[in-house]
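[Backbone geometry]
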Amino acid sequence: MGSLGGGAGVGARRPRFLCLHGFRTSGEIMRKQVVGKWPAEVTARLDLVFADAPFPAEGKSDVEGIFDPPYYEWFQFDKGFTEYRNLDKCFDYIEELMITEGPFDGLMGFSRGSVLSAALVGLQQQGLALTRVSKIKFLVIISGARFRGSHAVAEKPYANKIKIPSLHFLGDTDFLKNDGEKLIESFVDPFIIRHPKGHTVPRLIDEKSLEVMSCFLVKMEKEISGHSSTEADAPADVEEKEMCI
């Protein structure tokens, strides 16, 4: 568990995010993926807490040889990603983290962590998860997807449109690109950054992508400060919020 330092200005409170890493990696690996690729002027405006998943990896990690162990996983699933094991324990574990390490303003997830993040927000809005913590107000989804299959978690989180501000990263060659597009349909007025890479945390080096990130940061900061204007909260077309790296 680690928190990212920095500040958004004198006296300003930065939005605090619980960050959920990808499949068979770790909180420390995600910290390196995010902090190592995003500019300091972005990460300094966020308070990021990187958590390890509750279960040791039950198999080989795709990042072996790139990032050092230990590796963890949030839950277990079949090859089709339609049957899940230990999902309830995972939900309880995340809620306990939010109680002990929070309060949190948002969730940030990569890959499997993004699947969890989106589903948990949808379930919380219906009173079906995270009932002992305050409402999640913001969401960052990197290489996201929906749960699949006949399990209730494949339908219930997305039964109603998710209305909190959300930022989605979609890679042109990501094997989850189509799943990510489908997930975006569950959100109202999402911010979207598209990039040419695959299943990865993308770098933020292009002016247009930084502009979208800046708009998202400003929206969060205004809501946290309590000075959001009607204009800032007004819906905008998805196309107006989409930028390509």
User: Anything to note?
Assistant: The longest strand covers residues 166-171.
